[in-house]
Specification:
By secondary structure, this protein is an alpha+beta fold. Helix content is 17%, strand content 25%. It has a domain at 39-108. It has helices at 4-12, 93-100, 104-107; strands at residues 19-26, 34-38, 45-48, 65-73, 79-83. β1 (19-26) and β2 (34-38) form a beta hairpin.
Length: 122
């Protein structure tokens, strides 16, 4: 188990929109929760169901290797991710983004510790 000092050190190196390569390692309940991703760090990554297509058949399958962006990081030792491949994003992502996280374009590139948590979505 990672301690909070180690987690803070990892968080200091992460930026919103930073691309990471990962492999989907677990989909506990397809269509309802999201997918867990190995991103090669001491902590795992997670893509929330809110960012994935409504049709779970379009979700990346276990074993899929692809790029993700750092979407959110908070006190939980886990990187919240957004798929780079639009095939793995919700169909209305642009509209959803403008409603729930309109500041995303300005946040990209900023250190994750510089931004307060979003009030909606992941």
């Amino acid at each position: 188990m990672m301690n909070m000092v180690e987690w803070e050190e990892i968080r200091r190196r992460l930026h919103f929109g930073q691309c990471v390569f990962g492999r989907v390692v677990r989909i506990p309940r397809p269509g309802t929760i999201g997918v867990f991703v190995d991103i090669g760090l001491a902590v795992g990554g997670f893509v929330d169901v809110l960012l994935l297509p409504e049709d779970a058949a379009r979700w990346p399958a276990e074993g899929t290797e692809t790029e993700f962006e750092v979407w959110w990081v908070d006190e939980r030792p886990q990187g919240r991710l957004k798929p780079v491949d639009r095939h793995f994003l919700r169909e209305d992502f642009d509209e959803w983004l403008s409603r729930w996280r309109p500041g995303w374009p300005q946040e990209r590139g900023l250190p994750v510790l510089a931004i307060e948590p979003p009030s909606h979505g992941t």
